[in-house]
Design goal:
With 306 residues, this protein is an alpha/beta fold. Helices cover 43% and strands 22% of the residues. It has helices spanning 3-15, 18-25, 29-43, 59-81, 83-89, 101-115, 128-137, 201-210, 223-232, 249-252, 282-297, and strands spanning 48-51, 54-57, 92-96, 121-125, 142-148, 157-165, 167-171, 193-196, 217-221, 237-241, 257-260, 268-275, 303-304. A hairpin with a 2-residue loop joins strand 1 and strand 2 (54-57). The longest helix is centred in the N-terminal third of the chain and has 23 residues, at 59-81. It starts with a helix and ends with a strand.
């Protein structure tokens, strides 16, 4: 016996018609009729009297209806009581600019899954402005974004600093730039450049780095992951935060390498943002704390509001 079978018979009784009940429940009438018949067979009684003018409760059905209502009310009370547990098992949505995916995001998801096996985590790649918008609207629970010193945090969002690093040039080991211990900014003008699209922090950083020397992007893409793959395939060089490259499988395999930019002391910060609210779903709070623990293990200086 299933709860929906009892809900269906209650709807037929209330509406006095299989057709009207099917419309309200958004079922086909044959499907509803078969469900009711299955319940009648299981109970061993005819709950309905079916006539051309509609369906009414049989005498046996009338006798059992108070018990059916009791069961449905008990289920409702159970659902209310389980509300707090539902907050633990709900889906958590994370927007990310795809930075520090391997050293931070993937281990965090693995650790969180071990302690929250029934919670689904949806990870969505997006630009920073889109992440901020969806955080404000409630579409994301958490957002991972890169941040340059001096950038403002949008109103209504709390920000927790996870990792702090430096921009680096990411190239293949056979690139002439890989032979340098440091790469001057001018050298970026002599190679095919893979840029992040407008809206990403690293797009803004490269334009600021080169000042009046307009960079010529051979390619532009969304996020660090695709940028690293394009570098590995020999399409050019890209500029990323060091925490997006170091420890990446491509870097560990020696397929890509990174070199610091000479004469540049810019800090790039990976921050975790969320909507400022009095009540925070417990699953989202637990995931945030998992991010903080992992960042500390990586040596990140965690600051901000938890």
């Amino acid at each position: 016996m299933r709860t929906e079978q009892l809900e269906y018979i209650a709807a037929v009784t209330r509406l006095g018609s299989l057709r009207r009940a099917a419309d309200e429940l958004r079922l086909s009438q044959p499907a509803l009729s078969e469900t009711v018949r299955n319940l009648e067979r299981e109970l061993g009684v005819d709950l309905l009297e079916r006539k051309r003018t509609g369906a009414t409760m049989s005498a046996a059905g009338q006798e059992l209806m108070p018990r059916i209502v009791e069961v449905l009310e008990a289920v409702d009370r159970l659902r209310v009581a389980a509300g707090e547990q539902h907050r633990i098992s709900r889906m958590v949505r994370v927007g990310t600019v795809n930075a520090a995916t391997v050293p931070l995001l993937v281990p965090v998801l693995r650790d969180f899954r071990a302690s929250h096996p029934v919670t689904q985590v949806e990870v969505v790649g997006a630009q920073q402005t889109e992440i901020h918008r969806r955080l404000a609207e409630g579409g994301f629970d958490l957002g991972l974004v890169n941040h340059l010193d001096g950038d403002d945090v949008p109103a209504g969002l709390d920000s927790t600093e996870l990792l702090r690093g430096r921009p680096v040039v990411c190239v293949r080991p056979d690139s002439p730039l890989a032979r340098r211990t440091e790469v001057p900014a001018d050298a970026l003008l002599s190679v095919p450049l893979i840029g992040m699209r407008t809206g990403y922090v690293m797009h803004r950083y490269v334009h600021r780095l080169l000042a009046d020397r307009t960079p010529v992007f051979s390619y532009s893409t969304d996020g660090a992951e695709m940028g690293k793959l394009m570098v590995a395939e020999g399409l050019g060089a890209t500029v990323l935060p060091d925490y997006s490259v170091l420890g990446d499988p491509l870097e560990r395999a020696g397929t890509i390498v990174c070199r610091p930019l000479s004469g540049d002391a810019t800090d790039v910060v990976l921050t975790l943002r969320r909507r400022r609210a009095e009540a925070v779903p417990q699953a989202a709070q637990d995931l945030l704390e998992t991010f903080v623990r992992r960042a500390r293990a990586l040596g990140g200086t965690v600051t901000g509001r938890l």
